[in-house]
Amino acid sequence: MSELVNFHGYLISSESNCFTIYSPYIVDDDRVFGHDSDYTTMAISLIKHLLSQEVEFTIDSVDEKINFEVLQIATNIELLKNGSILGCGDDASVYLSSTNHSTIEQVEIPSKLMDVNLYQSMQIAWKAELDIRNISQGAYVSKQQYDESLSSRLSLIAQNDDKIIWPPRQMNSDGVTLSKESTNLSPKANVLTWTKLSAAGAPSEFAIRAPILGGLSTVMVEFDEGPKGVFLMVDDEDMEPKIGDSVEFVVRMLYGQEGIVRYGTKARIHPGQ
Question: pLDDT tens-digit profile of 99-131?
Fold first, then answer.
């Protein structure tokens, strides 16, 4: 087996022409997703890793468990004939292979134990949150609004109008229409300040999960390009941020609304700190 790579909080390995990304978590000997991960978030991280390593590949088909629209916006990939298969394993894994199965044995992958009661509570919470009957008492974001802002949130696309502006907007403070020219922010930033919202103080769209997690941590960060922004921290990592920490940005599940998962970018303390 090739050397494992820790990327975006997941584990990636390669064997011949097969690349596999795994969740590191185990419950009762079964590999499971983290609190805000699923096949789509893992597929995005796998593709981003391969792109960062300049690995040449094409994709012919994508498993239906993966939200291809979100994947495409986050990575800019296109489907091409005679490419590899982007498939889902039964063990919280995603693989890119020329065959229809992963060649990596699960027993060879390291793992972290997740509390079974916490895991089960989070699964129940997500199921309730994704119930079409569940209606947030907070600000409503329609599917159209969500789709329109998806590229700026998943790809950190900013406007370049003499200065870098993020998130994008139509007009500046003087009422002048802003340029449509865009640029990608760097995938890292530095923590300016942070806070932990209590379960009672969390936005209502997180009302079901926040009590289980003991609240939600958020950071205000500054990008090298200048813009500042506030991001949720990744849910399944027990790391307290500090002012000055470097964070990387990963795509995770944010919340459920109208029966669908709303994906977005979260901050994760950069490895090595």
Answer: 766 544 544 788 999 999 999 999 999 999 999
Alpha carbon distance 62, 84 (integer Å):
9
Confidence of residue 244 (pLDDT cuts 50, 70, 90): very high
Do residues 239 and 269 make contact, with C-beta atoms less than 8 angstroms apart? yes
Chain center to CA of 145: 19
- The encoded tokens of residue 139 equal 């600000």
Measuring CA to CA, how many Å separate 56 from each of 47, 53, 96?
11, 9, 12
Maximum CA extent, the chain: 60
Residue ranges of the domains in the chain?
Answer: 5-114, 143-269
Contact 21, 45 (CB under 8 A): yes
HEC readout, the chain: CCCCEEECCEEEEEECCEEEEECCEEECCEEECCCCCCHHHHHHHHHHHHHHCCCCCCEEEECCCCCHHHHHHHHCCCECCCCEEEEECCCCEEEEECCCCCCCCHHHCCCEECCHHHHHHHHHHHHHHCCCCCCCCCCCCCHHHHHHCHHHHHCCEEEEECEEECCCCCECCCCCECCCCEEECCCEEEEEEEEEECCCCCCHHHCCCHHHHCCEEEEEEEECCCCEEEEEECCCCCCCCCCCCEEEEEEEEEEEECCEEEEEEEEEECCCC
Question: For residues 250 and 268, is the Cβ–Cβ distance under 8 A?
Answer: yes
Candidates 92, 56, 103, 249; CA nearest to 166 is 249
Tell me if the pTM is above 0.90: yes
